[in-house]
Write a structure and sequence with these properties.
This protein is α+β, with helices and mostly antiparallel strands. The protein is built from 4 helices and 8 strands, in the order αβββββαββααβ. The protein has one domain: Electron Transport, Fmn-binding Protein, Chain A (Pnp Oxidase, Chain A, Roll). Strands 1, 2, 3, 4, 5, 6, 7 and 8 form an 8-stranded antiparallel sheet that branches.
Length: 149
């Protein structure tokens, strides 16, 4: 079994409802509330559920990079990947909502030098990512969301 802090059912349920509430408040206020967290910018990532086909919105910290956005699939350092990353692996076409603006993107897993560079920037923005990586055996994926015209 992979090392990583497990979440019990109560934490998973609370996290699910907190995510829904955050996304609703973000969307209602155009990002004026919920658009920053821990002094970092927040976007809403909108993916298609790989099992349900339903649209799923997840608030995530991000960095602008090369005309796109970089995000970390940290899942708080747990042993498993976040559902949104599994959804993107199944269907990399997605949308982000920043403020009130929706933007079509295509997800690509950052590799090699690009991953190293983005990890350094993301961990600089949100140092807890380093602790998350130390807690888990999995290499936290860094995802580059490239804007689709």
């Amino acid at each position: 079994m992979a090392r990583g802090r497990p979440y019990n059912r109560a934490i998973v349920t609370a996290q699910k409802w907190a995510t829904k509430l955050h996304a609703a408040v973000y969307r209602t206020t155009g990002g004026r509330i919920g658009g920053r967290m821990l002094n970092s910018p927040v976007l809403l990532l909108i993916t298609t559920g790989r099992k349900t086909g339903k649209q799923r919105s997840t608030p995530l910290l991000y960095l602008e990079d090369g005309g796109g956005y970089a995000i970390a699939a940290s899942n708080g350092g747990t042993s498993g990947h976040p559902a949104w990353w599994l959804n993107l692996e199944a269907d990399p076409e997605a949308k982000v909502e920043i403020g009130g603006k929706k933007i079509r993107v295509r997800a690509e897993k950052a590799m090699g030098e690009e991953r190293r560079r983005l990890w350094e920037r993301l961990a600089g923005m949100y140092p807890a990512y380093e602790g998350y990586q130390r807690r888990t055996d999995r290499k936290i994926p860094i995802v580059h969301l490239r804007i689709v015209d």
